[in-house]
Amino acid sequence: MDRIMIFGFSGGGKSTLARKMGEILDIEPTHFDRLHWLPGWVESTRDYKREMIKPILERDRWIIEGNYHHIYWNERLEKADTIIFIDVNRFTCIYQAWKRSLMYKGKTRPDMGEGCTEKFDLEFAKWVFFKGRKKRREYLKAIKQQKNSGKNTCILKSIKDINKFLEGLSE
User: Is 63 exposed, middle or buried (0-12, 13-18, 19+ CB in 10 A)?
Assistant: First the structure.
């Protein structure tokens, strides 16, 4: 495992998985949300994100966490040797996102852009519960295609699956 692509649903545990995998494998993870959100919850440009991700894709080892389908999606799939889809159900995701908002209340979490104080509002809840799940079929198709091409692929459907995966990685 040298080039790892992690994607899935908000609140599903992508960032935590990337951070813990990074610690185990000694690879600094790249969090797309950290690139996307500038101070004060201002969205960065597509060009900025592309400029920041391109050199990371050229490294021998990386963990890139986040969906951002419009930023080198095919290149990430092509270059990754390990592809992980976090397919956790919406109820767990909303609970995890709410719990995270309490844990980081008044702070910026480590995988988020500086100056983006943690928040949980109706707009974000709708994203977690509905809007952010619209590409599920595409994600499953991508995983299937990559598995068929011989890559190491994994679909993690629960927090328990994620923890079991990390335990296996630690051994």
Answer: buried
CA dist., res. 94 & res. 79, Å (int)? 31
Per 3-state DSSP, the chain is made up of helix, strand and coil in percentages (nearest 5) of 50, 15, 35
Q: How do the pLDDT tens digits run along the chain, 171 residues long?
A: 999 999 999 999 999 999 999 999 999 999 999 999 999 899 999 999 999 999 999 999 999 999 998 999 999 999 999 999 999 999 999 999 999 999 999 999 989 988 899 999 999 999 999 999 999 999 999 999 998 888 999 999 999 999 999 999 987
Domains by residue range for the chain, with CATH: 3-170 (3.40.50.300)
In degrees to the nearest 10, what's the CA dihedral of 63, 109, 51, 144?
40
Element (H, E) at 51: helix 46-57
pTM of the predicted structure, to 2 decimals: 0.94
